[in-house]
Specification:
It contains ten helices and seven strands. Strands 1-2-3-4-5-6-7 form a seven-stranded mixed sheet. The chain folds into two domains: 3-86 and 173-283, Alpha-Beta Barrel (TIM Barrel); 95-161, DNA polymerase, domain 1, CATH 1.10.150. The chain has 284 residues and is an alpha/beta fold. β1, α1 and β2 (32-35) form a beta-alpha-beta unit. Helix content is 43%, strand content 15%. α1 packs across α2 (42-53) and α5 packs across α6. The protein is globular.
């Protein structure tokens, strides 16, 4: 099965609607996708309804997914979750806490931008960049700064204002990766550490998170070199974890307009191992 287990929509920091993701996935020959927006699960229902209306349910399987942004010892650690019972009260509370943290962070940054830099942006200018109920974050703040004339482009906004050393930047008060893993696991889901190459304490953290329910490592990712894929695949095998992968798609390549959805080579056995893990979870 041609699979992409890491995709974002405009319900977080992606640019495509769930409907556009469905159409694109079918066009590029994908058979299974997971929508993994940051800290919310709203795109899944929209995509499923659209697929049904189009009469193409035999063309594409959509997996319920999420990506929880967490902080641990000054590392940003992202935890992917698959197949959670989204009605689980602890899981719902997790998303609520994460959303509240995003709103608080954004409003504090807006206030500091006005006070220290004279850059005036409105909270509404940020919220309107995402679909209703979606997750606001750094990309949306950077764009609002640029739109307000604070910088000439988004990259400059990041370089000047969206980093820990900036006097106007406030870190988000998120849950820990341990909490995110445990809550996803207890909600019947499969927790996976995302793009672990970004974390230089990945190996020790993965071992730590296993005692909270971590079940997989995202070894296949567009940032991961073949050597990196091999390293994390071997680690997963050694630790008895499954391997997952995806494009981490947000937007077409701005240089050439190329759509990288599904372009990251994810072996077909990835899907089989994920479904095998789901059966184990269902029996637990």
């Amino acid at each position: 099965m041609k699979t992409d287990l890491h995709i974002h929509t405009y319900y977080s920091d992606g640019v495509f609607s769930p409907e556009k993701i469905v159409d694109t996935a079918i066009d590029v020959g994908l058979q299974v996708i997971a929508l993994t927006d940051h800290d919310n699960i709203l795109s899944y229902g929209v995509a499923k309804d659209y697929l049904k209306k189009q009469g193409k349910e035999d063309k594409l399987e959509i997996i319920q997914g999420v990506e929880i942004n967490t902080l641990y010892k000054n590392y940003e650690v992202h935890i992917l979750g698959y197949f959670m019972d989204t009605s689980n009260s602890d899981f719902q509370n997790l998303l609520k806490i994460q959303q509240q943290a995003r709103v608080k962070q954004t409003k504090e940054i807006i206030a500091l931008l006005a006070k220290k830099e004279g850059i005036k942006i409105k909270y509404e200018d940020i919220v309107k960049q995402v679909a209703e109920g979606g997750s606001i974050g750094r990309p949306h703040i950077a764009k609002a700064i640029t739109n307000a004339g604070g910088t000439s482009n988004v990259m400059e906004a990041y370089a000047k204002y969206i980093h820990d050393d900036s006097p106007v930047y406030v870190r988000r008060k998120t849950v820990s990766p341990h909490d995110a893993v445990e809550i996803i696991y207890d909600a019947g889901g499969i927790p996976v550490i995302a793009h672990p190459h970004d974390i230089d304490i990945a190996e020790s953290l993965i071992k730590e998170l296993m005692s909270y329910g971590l079940r997989g490592i995202e070894a296949y990712h567009r940032k991961h070199s073949p050597a990196c894929v091999e390293y994390f695949s071997s680690m997963a095998e050694e630790l008895g974890l499954i391997v997952t992968g995806g494009s981490d798609f947000h937007a077409p390549n701005i240089m050439n307009g190329q759509i990288i959805l599904g372009k990251n080579f994810v072996p077909e056995w990835i899907y089989d191992k994920l479904m095998q893990e789901k059966r184990i979870m269902d029996m637990a």
